[in-house]
Amino acid sequence: MKYRREFFRQLIHASGIIFIIISTYLNSLQMLILSVLAAAAGEVIFRIDRIHYIPLLSGILRGCRRNTSERGFIYYFLGMAVTYAIFGFSMDIANGAILILTLGDSFSTIIGREYGKHRLPFNRDKSIEGSLAFAFSGFIGALFIIGPLPALTGAVTGALVEAYTPVEDNLTIPVFAGAAILLSGHLMGAP
């Protein structure tokens, strides 16, 4: 049952791809505003849910909660907002970093919890299998938006950040992945 709940939580997390689709119609400022509004709406719903049951939403919220973080979904939207604020000059970089977060974090949790046998020496809560799943899925997802080297460096950086960040990696992963994408693009001679 616990695995099923986490799988559902990660499925909701992966639905963040909807933001990538929406971004094809909006600019970075509009995406920044949308992300902040989603975080604010999430906080309001979270607070109301603590007092009153909200049909449909309460079930989703309660299914997505972890013992370590009740507001992970809010940090997810804030991580998107920060990413659009920093890398908004290039929607490809911003969206590549967000895809790395969205897919990488979801697959690392699912694979790591189900198949993770080899613990990372510096973080016993994480597994090598989960980190490899993060890097692979983040890389594949980012390839739809950016080139192979930026996708690879962004995904590997995201996996390392996820492995080292103790909590709320939804804020740190897309920022560091975006920086790696930008840096690798510059090293390749991209403008």
From TrEMBL:
Keyword S-adenosyl-L-methionine: no
Any one GO molecular-function label of the UniProt entry: ATP-dependent diacylglycerol kinase activity
Keywords: Membrane, Transmembrane, Transmembrane helix
Xref: InterPro entries: Dgk1-like (IPR037997)
Residue spans crossing the bilayer: 7-26, 69-87, 93-111, 132-151, 171-190
Domain of life: Archaea
Name of protein: SEC59/DGK1/VTE5 family protein
Organism: Methanothermobacter wolfeii
